[in-house]
Amino acid sequence: MKQSTVAGTVARYAALAIATVLFLLPFYLMLRNAFATDKEITGVDWTIFPSSLQWGNVGEVFTDTSANFGRTLFNSAFIAVTQTIGTIVLSSMAGYALARIPFRYATPIFYAVLLTLMVPPAVTFVPSFIIVSRLGWVNSYQGIIVPVLFSGFTAFLFRQYFLNFPRELEEAGRIDGLGYLGVFWRIVVPNSLGFFAAISVITVISSWNQFLWPLVVGQDPDMWTVQVSLSTLMTAQTINLHQVFMAALISIVPLVLVFVFLQRYLVQGVAESGIKG
């Protein structure tokens, strides 16, 4: 092996190692500080790990009535799952219709969907809240979920994916007497589970991390999400650092689990365009 090749390989691995350390550093700090005391977090004498793990910090997060953290975890999980299912169903059907069903206004509708991607969310925020308020959906799950169910970006991704879906499978379904809806649900969806899983992971993460819309619509503490609850732990008067770090650590556990279990499908759905075999 040439010396230049060895040097290039070493440089690449060194760059990857540095990038890995920089990426994992915030997670290390979160984990370390979650089980430490405020004195150890802010102290001058820094230690890699706390002198003793403060397991009581876990219970403190859930017993804090001002944060209502247990309830907010349930709210975020329910909203994320419901929004993901609704978004996947609506956007996949819209994407398939734009990709496969020939109708007169398919192109203008597709351009209209693309146009929504160019509109800043701040422009539609106030009109959306007025509609939710008029419907009486403030402080309700439907008020948080329904206005963001349809995603133009997700519909666009599904359309681009379905354009490359093998037509032979769809034609076989039509020969068996299936219509567009039957072909979609019985042939296209079962053979596209990798891509559906990839989009589901992205949608779950996006829904879980939403802050401003749930903050405005879910004004009652019983409707707070995890992100809103985290913000209440930091006030102008007091900041319990160990509690903030522990709550942040707990809040990312569901996302880590989703990513771990669906990682294979995420990579497959992003890197590949369709069906094997």
Description:
It comes from Pseudonocardia zijingensis. It is a multi-pass membrane protein. Residues 73-262 form the ABC transmembrane type-1 domain. The chain crosses the membrane at residues 12-31, 77-98, 110-132, 144-162, 183-205, 241-262. 71% of the residues lie in helices and 0% in strands. It is mainly alpha-helical and 277 residues long. The protein is globular and about 70 Å long. Mean pLDDT is 87; it is low at 273-277.
Write the layout of secondary structure elements.
Layout: H1 3-34, H2 38-42, H3 56-63, H4 69-100, H5 106-116, H6 121-134, H7 141-145, H8 152-163, H9 167-175, H10 180-188, H11 193-208, H12 212-217, H13 226-232, H14 241-271
Helix pairs in contact: 1-14, 3-14, 4-8, 4-11, 4-13, 5-8, 9-10, 11-14
Transmembrane segments: 12-31, 77-98, 110-132, 144-162, 183-205, 241-262
Subcellular location: Cell membrane
Family: Belongs to the binding-protein-dependent transport system permease family.
| Helical content class | over 70%
Task: Provide the residue-averaged pLDDT.
Answer: 87
* Alpha-carbon distance between the two ends: 38 Å
Write down the oligomeric state: single chain
Main sheet: strands, sense, barrel: none
Rg (CA only): 24 Å
Please report which band the strand proportion falls in: under 5%, 5-15%, 15-25%, 25-35%, 35-45% or over 45%.
under 5%
pLDDT < 50 runs, ≥5 residues: 273-277
Order of helices and strands: HHHHHHHHHHHHHH
Query: How many strands appear in the DSSP assignment?
Result: 0
Coarse shape = globular
